[in-house]
Specification:
Blueprint: E1 12-16, H1 20-32, E2 36-40, H2 43-52, E3 57-61, H3 67-79, E4 84-89, H4 94-102, E5 107-110, H5 115-134, H6 142-145, H7 156-168, E6 175-178, H8 185-195, E7 203-207, H9 213-221, E8 222-223, E9 235-236, H10 238-241, E10 246-250, H11 257-269, E11 271-272, E12 281-282, E13 286-291, H12 295-301, H13 306-312, E14 316-318, H14 329-344, E15 350-351, H15 353-361, H16 367-381, E16 386-387, H17 394-402, H18 413-427, H19 432-439, H20 443-453, H21 457-462
Parallel strand pairs: 1-2, 1-3, 3-4, 4-5, 6-13, 6-14, 7-10, 10-13, 15-16
Antiparallel strand pairs: 8-9, 11-12
Helix pairs in contact: 2-3, 7-8, 14-16, 15-18, 18-19, 19-20
Length: about 475
């Protein structure tokens, strides 16, 4: 008699059953079939295992009330969306089967189930999972998709901005990037350039607030020989130097009104005139602008041309301040520790839970740039392989001590709650069971709050690997 071939892929299975004997027999049989098998005695234990390890298939015994299994199905969709779940039921109904399938079960089998039937069902489930785990075309997670451009984020707010930026990059539309100082406006502009069909051309940034009006005009438009005293040779401006590429005008809000009119003409005609020349020159550049001011208010005050504002108001990308996306601190801080520790030749593993708590409670008025500077200083003064509180600047430590009895800065109660959940999750390496216990709430309540605030326990756990 020809023996059934064992599974060459050695897929990983998780068996969930509170009946010790039945669970043990099933585990032994599946192990003989060639699978890597783990076991759990309850849906709660299974959820904890799913948080810590990836399984190809979960086989769970349907409980009498069904609540635990439905909770497991819901949790698997969050923590292990690529894991197939097979439900085994002593007795089944159409309604319960439909509900199970709606929540994500790939199969619903009524006991007794023959070994051949179960074998075929598992094999089919594994085959459905196989492309997801072995294909070279596996899609990147959203938080990793943008790292090639040096953008380290995980918050839903920032991912939404980046998704919009990647779409507008494929067009020729003018873009206005808004955000406080230090939020990464130039970094986003560089990413838009890199994602566009102009990526092979130059990217030229210029700070409109760093130069006087005459110097800024000369930099942008250039001049002909003899245009003014000292102009001994022809000078091409940045609009010409940027042919085929992108010009990034940072702090457009402080550009003098006279220059705003000239910029408007450039946008309308795609032509420039060098200073001292009457001959127009065609240009082929994309113009991206950025500001940390409210241009609408400047328009109302007469400090910014309304027609120029409406030229840029079509596509506006707003970068949220770091205090509104604290989950990004969880990935930015370890990234900066790694970067600066390599730079100074001091091997470090990451950020301690105590130090991370302090970082999460700081309001970061200087945003990502401030965080970067704080971490650079802390790495230099650190005496441990982990970044500890004593390496942080004294002002952060004083603020943390002052904030024990009241919310930091102008944080709302919801923001304070989110910050505390993030800190405790980080302390417990993303483990939700331990976090819920430390917070004094049920695991279900924690899951609801994490969903509300867009918090990913898996992303936090990755920082500790």
């Amino acid at each position: 008699m020809k023996m059934e071939s064992r599974n060459p892929r050695s897929a990983s299975l998780l068996v969930v059953d509170n009946a010790c004997v039945e669970r043990s027999m099933l585990v032994q049989w599946l192990t003989r079939e060639g699978y890597q098998v783990d076991e759990a005695t309850s849906p709660g234990e299974a959820i904890q295992k799913l948080e810590q390890q990836r399984y190809d298939v979960v086989i769970t015994e349907r409980s009498l009330d069904g609540e635990g299994d439905l909770g497991l199905l819901k949790a698997s969709r969050v923590h292990a969306p690529h894991t197939a779940v097979i439900l085994l039921a002593t007795s089944g109904s159409i309604d319960s089967a439909v509900e199970a399938m709606r929540l994500g079960a790939c199969d619903y089998l009524t006991k007794p189930v023959s070994r051949q039937k179960l074998r075929d069902t598992i094999r089919q489930a594994v085959q459905r999972q196989k492309p997801r785990t072995t294909s070279l075309a596996l899609p990147e997670s959203p938080s990793h998709r943008y790292r090639a451009q040096g953008i380290i984020v995980t918050s839903p707010k920032m991912l939404a901005v980046l998704e919009a930026a990647s779409l507008v990059a494929q067009t020729s539309a003018n873009v206005l990037i808004q955000g406080e100082s230090g939020t990464g406006k130039e970094l986003l502009a560089r990413a838009i350039h890199a994602w566009s069909d102009r990526a092979s051309g130059p990217f030229i940034p210029i700070d409109c607030g760093a130069l006087a009006e005459t110097l800024l005009e000369n930099e942008l438009f250039g001049h002909v020989k003899g245009a003014f005293t000292g102009s001994l040779v022809l000078k091409r401006g940045l609009f010409e130097e940027g042919q085929g590429g992108t010009i990034f005008l940072d702090e457009i809000g402080v550009m003098p009104v006279a220059l705003q009119m000239k910029l408007l003409r450039v946008l309308q005609e795609r032509m420039i005139r060098r200073i001292g020349s009457t001959t127009p020159t065609s240009i082929d550049v994309r113009i991206l602008t950025a500001t940390n001011q409210d241009l609408k208010t400047l328009v109302a005050q007469g400090d910014f041309r309304a027609d120029l504002y409406y030229r840029f108001n079509g596509v506006v990308l707003t970068l949220p301040p770091l205090r509104e996306r604290q989950e990004d601190i969880l990935v930015l801080a370890p990234y900066f520790v790694q970067h600066f520790s390599q730079q100074v030749g001091k091997p470090m593993r990451g950020v301690s839970a105590e130090a991370m708590t302090i970082l999460l409670h700081h309001s970061w008025p200087g945003n990502v740039r401030e965080l970067q500077n704080v971490i650079e200083r802390a790495v230099i003064f650190s005496r441990s392989e982990w970044l500890l509180p004593e390496a942080l600047p004294p002002e952060l430590l004083r603020q943390e001590g002052a904030n024990v009895s009241r919310p930091p800065g102008s944080m709302t109660l919801a923001e304070l709650e989110k910050t505390h959940i993030l800190a405790v999750l980080y302390k417990h390496h993303g483990n939700q069971t331990q976090t819920a216990k430390a917070l004094g709430i049920s695991r279900a309540t924690l899951w609801q709050k994490m969903k509300k605030y867009g918090i990913s326990a898996r992303q936090i756990a990755v920082q500790h690997r």
